[in-house]
Amino acid sequence: MAEQKSIHGLWRSRWLFILAATGSAVGLGNIWKFPYITGENGGGAFVLVYLACICVIGIPVMIAEVTLGRLGRQSPINTMHALVKDQNAAKFWGGIGWMGAVSGFLILSFYSVIAGWSLAYIFRMAGGAFDGATAQSVGTIFGDLLGNPEALLGWHTIFMVLTIGIVARGVNKGLERSISILMPLLFLILVVLLGYSMSTEGFGAAFNFLFSFDFSKITAESIVVALGHAFFTLSLGMGAIMAYGAYMPKSASVGKTVLTVAFLDTLIALVAGLVIFPIVFSNGLEAGAGPGLLFQTLPLAFSQMPAGTVFGTLFFLLVAFAALSSAISLGEPVVAWAVESKGMSRVAAATWIGIVIWLLGVGTILSFNLWADFKIFGRTIFDNLDFLTANILLPLGGLLIAIFVGWVMHKQDVADEVKMESPFMYNVWRFLVKFVAPVAVAIVLINGLI
Ligand code: PHE
């Protein structure tokens, strides 16, 4: 395909792409979701399946998705349109862009609600709500927050306004710079917390829990969850990484860049696990406590630490920031599309799209309180949104991307764009995208869902 230009601008360097993509990848998925689904799915064996999914499916699909974006240089919907034309492919493949847009709406609608919890916790921490906390009082504070729909709505609203504000300004201004300071800071605090966790008596038990592989605990559903999480945590399968790839300079190597992002993302998830589970085991908490795990363990740790109030406040601030840098990548694909195809200004597009997503978020809010008993397929609204997006739509999107790049596109066009230095690595990648990723995802989806 002839060289395309992005109307939204480009990242100023390969590093800024890495930063932005890492900002997208590292978020609630790493710090909030990974620990709690690991707890729910029995630990070690689940972690191993998740790591395998990252290596043989996530990384190859991420390379494919970035490549599509950089070839098309537009929003995922239009990039897929353009590629379908250019490659003489069936119209069907354009659906990858549209499906991604739907996933983005649904994910951001609940993501913002959870990010709102971390906003609430910044103030609870700073106000000393957790001074002298016990396992019980921490549980009560969390329960009170979830039981209060007005409060949840308030925090959700604030988070959506922040997200829209940044997307409206364009990704170049503001975000690039702040991520480069805040992400390392978040990592630093996690390492400080890791130091604390290692000093607790539960560390050995936690380490065993995370890294000893008891395969009897693996079920078809937990494999679906591990695979889904690999997509979720790497921001794959819905166009976020395709949109970011569209702004990536031509000179950067896709393979190396993607490896860096995936490494950082995985590292942060594992460190988060090593921080949270020692606290769980030292305090007799429940590893399978579900979505509240992060919010019920860390305040306990902070309350027992010197200067815990300061660290705790800073920690939840950084979690909120990590969530924000992911949230903007959920909004960017659709906003970019509205700017390109509907002739809207960025501000108008971000506002309208933001309002729709904000409204959808109300369903998630109510599923924690007033509608907690309203269940479809035995799941609350939040659980359904989470399951549908992470465990079905993202893997399906990734599957289609892998097939499109591996089988539908002209071989030479792909090779020219991916351009790996080592022919061996290129062949490994090609084999993974063509065969391993599609087959593995298809098997897991079919098995897990039936
Ligand atoms: N990767 C983000 C996280 O782990 C979530 C996300 C999913 C962002 C899909 C963009 C697209 O928190």
Report helical residue fraction.
over 70%
Structural class: mainly alpha
Outline the low-pLDDT stretches. none
What is the CATH first-level class name?
Mainly Alpha
Q: Give the rounded overall mean pLDDT.
A: 94
The coarse overall form would be: globular
**Helix-strand topology string:** HHHHHHHHHHHHHHHHHH
**How far apart are the first and last residues' alpha carbons, in Å?**
40 Å
Q: Nearest-angstrom radius of gyration?
A: 21 Å
> How many H/I helical runs?
18
> Could you tell me which ligands this complex binds, including any ions or cofactors?
phenylalanine
What's the main sheet like?
Answer: none
Strand % is: under 5%
Total count of domains: 1
Number of β-strand runs = 0
Under the CATH scheme, the architecture is Orthogonal Bundle
| CATH topology-level name | Hydantoin permease
What do these coordinates show?
The chain has helices at 14-25, 28-40, 44-72, 76-86, 95-126, 135-146, 149-169, 175-199, 203-211, 220-233, 240-245, 254-282, 293-304, 308-341, 346-367, 381-408, 411-418, 423-449. The chain starts with 13 loop residues before the first helix and ends with a helix. With 450 residues, the protein is an all-alpha fold. The chain has 18 helices and no strands. The protein has one domain (14-449): Orthogonal Bundle (Hydantoin permease). The site of phenylalanine has 15 residues, from helix 1, helix 2, helix 10 and helix 14.
